[in-house]
Design goal:
Length: about 270
């Protein structure tokens, strides 16, 4: 109830003095978050699979440390959690940002692709939460931020694997919010639109209102400082997507079919 009252009053939640763990920090939105977070928090622990990509980032800041961790490998996450526990004893904020994106060609249906994306995006989040939750419970102000996607609001062509994985992230995080509220741990969901990253650079379709990773990082931190339950951006794009997602099927379906035809890859 106190957090609800604070939110209604527009209370500010500064990152000053916080210990933060950020996954998926080697590129894209994760890498762009590092300087914004490091400028405000007490200490930032960053992790990703490739330590060689993390070290040059961490070395730029006195209050940033890097550790290798693959979110699909619970043992590697446990090692990071153990290190944090030994040094700090807790974390105030977990930003579960690690993820991947692959598109499905239903003409050559690849079940392994779907499982691979689900394993990284959903199982990876579950593994990360399992490792970090004891550290969040040890804090006096635990806060979990799960990076999802605005794709969950509206089905898009070839996004079966990615969209399903992020829909699972949404439900999992929202249920966690309910169950962890009694422990004083808050949960936010981040739903970006199109952001310029190494992942989206591989896309071969129009990406309206695409923003930079740096703009995305600023939007995420601004939302975190208010503990917004839904941090979505850019606002113009996400509002349109939400509106389309709220349409009845009789209106939504013709629009989706038209969009699907316009985005369909030509067959050889």
């Amino acid at each position: 109830m106190k957090r609800l009252i604070n939110r209604l009053r527009g209370r500010h939640y500064p990152l000053t003095g916080q210990i933060i763990w950020l996954t998926g920090a080697s590129s894209g939105i994760g890498a762009a978050l590092v300087p914004v977070l490091a400028a405000q928090c007490r200490h930032l622990v960053i992790s990703a699979r490739d330590i060689s990509s993390l070290m040059p980032i961490a070395e730029q800041y006195a209050n940033v440390s890097a550790m290798p961790a693959d979110v699909t490998d619970p043992q590697s996450l446990a090692l990071v959690a153990h290190h944090i526990d030994e040094v700090f004893g807790y974390i105030d904020t977990l930003i579960a940002n690690a993820g991947t994106c692959e598109y499905l060609d239903v003409g050559q249906f690849d079940a392994a692709l779907v499982r691979r994306v689900m394993h990284t995006n959903f199982d990876g989040l579950v593994n990360t939460v399992a490792a970090a939750l004891p550290l969040l419970r040890a804090s006096q102000r635990g806060y979990l931020v799960a990076v999802s996607s605005s794709v969950t609001w509206l089905p898009l062509p070839r996004a079966e694997a990615y969209g399903a994985s992020k829909a699972a992230v949404d439900y999992f995080a929202k249920s966690l919010r309910l169950d962890l509220a009694q422990e004083g741990i808050d949960v936010s969901l981040v739903a970006p639109g199109f952001v310029k990253t190494p992942l989206t650079d591989r896309n071969h379709f129009a990406m309206p209102m695409r923003i930079s990773a740096e703009q995305a990082a600023q939007a995420i931190v601004a939302g975190m400082q208010q503990h917004q339950h839904s941090i979505h951006f850019p606002k113009g794009f996400t509002r349109i997507l939400r509106l389309l997602g709220a349409l009845p099927d009789c209106l939504q379906w013709p629009l989706l079919k038209l969009f699907t035809r316009s985005q369909r890859k030509p067959r050889a």
